[in-house]
Specification:
It is built from 13 helices and 16 strands. With 384 residues, it is an alpha/beta fold. The protein has one domain (26-378): Ribonucleoside hydrolase-like (Inosine-uridine Nucleoside N-ribohydrolase, Chain A), CATH 3.90.245. Helix 3 packs antiparallel against helix 10 (250-260) and helix 4 (137-148) crosses helix 5. The longest helix has 14 residues, at 365-378. The protein is globular, with a radius of gyration of 20 Å.
Amino acid sequence: MMKRRDLLIAIAAAFAGLTPAVRSKTFSTGERTKNGKIPIVHITDLYHPPQDPDDHIDLATVAALIEYDLKGVILDTTRKFLLASPVGFDIQRDPGFIPVVQLGYILGCSIPVAAGPTLPLTRPEDDVVDRLPGEQAGVKLLLDILEECREEVVVSVVGSTRVLTAAYNRSPELVRRKVRSVLLNAGSTAGPKREWNVGLDPEAYVGLWRSGLPIHWYPCATEGGAFNPDHDRGTYWKTTHARIFRDLAPPVRAWFTYAFSSGHSGDIIGALADTDRSGAWDRILSEQRNMWATASLVMGAGRVLANTSQGWRFVPSSSVEGDTIWDWHLDRIEAQVNAKAEVQWRLVEDGGNALLFKRGRGPEFCSAMAEALGALLGSLLVSP
């Protein structure tokens, strides 16, 4: 049960629009548990076919980072992407169950997966208990994982915060006790324009910032928008599929080919043996890709971006010896959120209630990230 003092602080913070102070574990990152792994739950707006293909790449990145123990994937679905126009966004999609099941088959494991509610929260305190049974599964899966896992769990969010906020509202003591950190890929450091992931569910975003959970904030946008590759607080970078898919193992290549191609067959497992699909791969390699979440996932695993003798690589921070490191780190901040889902923040030397991403600027950042991610995805070893 929440202590009376903590309850009063939380209530006062909610009225003031502030985020309650959090305990010291907010400032740990990349720390492994006793079994040498970092338990992680990946909340993603993954669809089939993709609404934005970077979500498939992010999921593959989580799988390739051997530091992680992937406890589950929760699909952050929004109704307008499940319906064809004119009532929906463009084409009809399904929640991304198929790519998760396929990836589990490739890796030889079972990945727990469930979908969350399809409509935004009605208020920051909404626990979605009134939603349809099929939309309860994502919240329930997250709470079950937190309950059953012995260690604290990292939660990565690369979509809206709907599922996480609803889970917190439903069981705040459990979530605060078992979530080690929230890798939050959403929001803008400044400016009036609402960032995409925040716009999917503004009330959930407000609720998360008011929860007091240990947020590691990786903004998808800055005052100049969401597509500036040379901002020291922004996570955005851009590349081509040819650069990051250059060394994929055949089944992983088939997984991406199936996801990014039209005319899908019903045999979702048999398709993983087809690496050609009538020349579709050449078209895929020619495409460009906007990326945002890579830094959060890599830093959460305790790795750095280093220029090694083999080129730019994501390497464990403990194994860097004489390599050039691209500076990135998390700064302590004091942050508050208003009813419009706008976060105001300031740097602090001690204390604070969140951590904010910062990186060195330079024209080589996109190229370095692409080279390192290509090597990481190429390391995703699978059984033949």
